[in-house]
Amino acid sequence: MEFKVGKKVTMETTKKNTKKKEKHENLKEKRSDELKKKKLSKKLQKKPKEKKVRSSLQKIKLIDDDEEAEKLSQNSDYYSEEEETSGDELHVKGDGVSPSSTVVARKRGDANTSGGDNDDNDSFHSAEESDSSEDEVAPRNTIGEVPLEFYKDEEHIGYDVIGRKIKKKDRKDKLDAFLANVDDKKSWRRFIDEYNDEEVELTKKETKMINRILKGKTPHADVNPYEPYVDWFVWEGKGHPLSNAPEPKRRFIPSKSEAKKIKKYVRAFREGRITFDKPKEKEKVYLLWGDDSSSSGKTRGLSYIPPPKAKLPGHEEAYNPSLEYIPTQEEINSYQLMYEEDRPTFIPTRYTSLRSVPAYANFLKELFARCLDLYLCPRVIKKRVNIDPESLKKKLPDPKDLRPYPTTCYIEYKGHSGAVVTISTDSSGQWIASGSTDGTVRVWEVATGRCVRVWEIGSSIRQVAWNPSPDLPILALSVDQDVLILDTGLGSEEEQGKIKDLLHMQKSTISDESSDAAIVSWLSDDKLGGLRLKHSKTVTSIEWHRKGDYLSTVIPADILISSFVLLISFC
């Protein structure tokens, strides 16, 4: 007898159906005899091996009786490895049996009985012609997405299509499950479908698929994830993309709708219609079984303050102090004239040895006074103020707040060999004069840094002052006891003529009315081309009048003396 897996069932004529019945009955009788023999052999064996019996019963059984099918389904498995791999119905071939004479074996514990030949043929046809697979069968339970927790205390788990209650099945305990795992190698494939309350077993194909997924592979081995890419578009000879529409103008213009929303929120904030949630205060947690007030609150005003320490004896209380600590008789008599509160209680005396020192007469009195002070006088803790030394420093403004200020060197005037001690700018701002300790005075052009004029005075320059009048470009400078007025030669021809007439004056002397001695002598300096005003002492400072007609000088002496030089203005 040979078993083969087939996918198609062909219908024969009614004549062949009768032959099928006869063959079918013969096969059934043979199969029943074999089962009886196996049962007897099982009883005779002292230690029956359930695995061998079950493997023998796992072969395909041709059954027509529902009761016998249920009994055998409880004791053995009805499907073999060939059925798991194929998942299709089985056909039986034999002598005189056509390929169309088939009998369907029960799978997964479901009874498939036939009431007659026509019913069997109809069921075969309906099963083969159906496009649905076993995985796509509609669930038996129709409760939808209702959680199964709602049926936890009920005797059923839901309702079927007709509306009948689906009662809960008895589950195996842990001992039965353990024995099933030991006896049956395929028990690890079975799991409970809690939604339909059924036991489902995975096939070999499904287990292979799960193993491939766990290894990170594709579920089916036939699928190649690295197939060559097929470009469905033609790019050769195309100069533009599929969509070459220009960008709309709205993408470059601010959104008006967003501006309206922002204005709406700003007005709501200003009017107070939209307020921000204030941070919630943390709730204070109190001890349920504790006191009404904490221990720290109770002892806050009763904190321990140590008593002041007694004054330690000094050198004057020694038994043989030095002579400087021993008072004279006059000082002792003056002590008697003092008030008792201010009178010293101990008078230092000298003794030759420590044995000759008598007992202190005021010891008990002073001890009693100290005890009274400790008992009656209040104690106060002096709070020390912890001051950060950095807070005493003057806070300087941030350099960012002082801008604009020069941060880079724009131009540099080089030419002096000594330190530059004084500078002055003319009224137009075009020229600048500088004096240095090397004894030279230089005139520079502000914009270019070009040196226009140099005077070698020979002594250190104290101060340089430019005449504020734009019509008289002259320079005054103080050198030791002299004040020099120099012609810069920077004005026009008319201005230069006025300056020459002004500076080339006759020698004269300016004297004080109250004294015959000359204070300032006015001399012409042909070497420098200007005037020299000699003073009696060193001139420390000079200053022009805002109109440029007067010049004042300051001399450091017992009496400040100011000399005024009158310059005749030709304007």
Number of strands: 19
Radius of gyration: 63 Å
With helices defined by DSSP (H or I, 4 residues minimum), what is the helix count?
13
Q: CATH topology of the domain at 420-566, anyone?
A: Methylamine Dehydrogenase, Chain H
- Could you describe the largest sheet, including whether it forms a barrel? 6 strands, antiparallel
DSSP strand content: 15-25%
Which structural class best describes the helix and strand composition?
Answer: alpha+beta
- Neighbour order of strands in the largest sheet: 11-12-13-16-15-14
The CATH homologous superfamily of the domain at 420-566 is termed YVTN repeat-like/Quinoprotein amine dehydrogenase
Q: Per CATH, which architecture of the domain at 420-566?
A: 7 Propeller
State the helical fraction.
25-40%
Which regions are unreliable across 5 or more consecutive residues at pLDDT < 50? 1-13, 46-134, 506-517
Q: Identify the CATH class of the domain at 420-566.
A: Mainly Beta
* Mass-distribution shape: flat
Mean pLDDT: 74
What distance separates the N and C termini? 148 Å
Protein name: BOP1 N-terminal domain-containing protein
Domain BOP1 N-terminal: 151-406
Biased composition (Basic residues): 37-54
Biased composition (Basic and acidic residues): 1-15, 23-36
